[in-house]
Amino acid sequence: MDDGTALIIVSDHGLVPASHHLWVNNFLARHGFISVEFDADGRPKVDWSRTKAYCAPFTQIWVNLKGRDPEGCVEPGEEYEEVREEIVRALRGWRDEETGEYVIDEVFKVEDGAFYGLWGERDGDVRFFTRPG
Asked: How far is residue 108's CA from residue 45's CA, in Å, rounded to a whole number?
């Protein structure tokens, strides 16, 4: 570059490099939030009638809520709040099997996400951020 050239660097997320990948839906299945059945060929299929919550997309966890979701199985009100509390506790306790370090840096209910600009009816019921790396 010469003195007449401007260098501009733009990023839309500012993410740090990652050395591990998380399979959040596998974690949720191991903790009983997602119910999976296997067909005759061994392929997994989600049983939505017994699935309480799932991750989609990225860092949004949705409770499979009656009256909102097509095959919702979680009752609005007390049961919904209990499921969200269980998810928050489970994610806060998730540790990397290799290092023993916590995996999740921040986890919160959707109504507590305004600080991050994340909230509203089109956002997941529980949100989380992973630890750097």
From this structure: 28
